[in-house]
Amino acid sequence: MAIQTRNKRKIDFNTSSMSDLVFLLLIFFMLTSTLISPNAIKLLLPNSSSKTMAKPAQVTVYINSDFNFFIEDKKVNAKNLQPGLEKKLKGQKDASVVLRSDKTVPVQYVVTVIDAVNNINKKYNTKNKVILATKPVK
Predict the structure, then answer these.
(1) Which of 25, 30, 47, 112 is the one with CA 20 to 30 A from 84?
(2) Is 55 helix (H, G, I), strand (E, B) or coil?
(3) Do β-strands 69-71 and 59-63 pair in parallel, antiparallel, or remain unpaired?
(4) First-to-last CA distance in the chain?
């Protein structure tokens, strides 16, 4: 006499709930990625009607409203600005340094960046340029 079990175990795997979860995650990441701003440092750029476009920048320097210097996204103080720029511009003869300065920053901080690039040009006999980034007048 054979004993039979009434409840048989199914080996199937139901993937319907898994696909719902994947779509919810996809929608979440799509929505949150559009909220991320491309500039990590919040600046109010000065206005300009000039439409001069520069070649792609090799280095970007930021000065925020608290008068802090950033090379790319790394915070540096005024003393380490020139050595940091030297590192980034090493081996380049005609590079562009884009200066993104908040419009409330005094001119002296902008001149500090220009002086640092000019000192590098004298030291290595290069022709690096400083370009001030602005936003268009509406």
Answers:
(1) 47
(2) coil
(3) antiparallel
(4) 91
Residue 64 is classified by DSSP as: -
Separation CA 99–CA 124 (nearest Å)? 21
Residues 6+ apart with CB under 8 A from 137: 47, 48, 49
Q: Domain limits of the chain?
A: 47-136
Alpha helices by DSSP H, listed for the chain, are 16-35, 81-89, 107-124
Give the tens place of pLDDT for each residue, 81-100: 999 999 999 988 889 999 99
Q: Are 38 and 76 in contact (CB under 8 A)?
A: no
Instruction: Output the six-digit token pair for 118.
Output: 């000019």
Query: Is this structure's pTM higher than 0.90?
Result: no
What span, in angstroms and rounded, lies between the C-alpha atoms of 9 and 78?
71
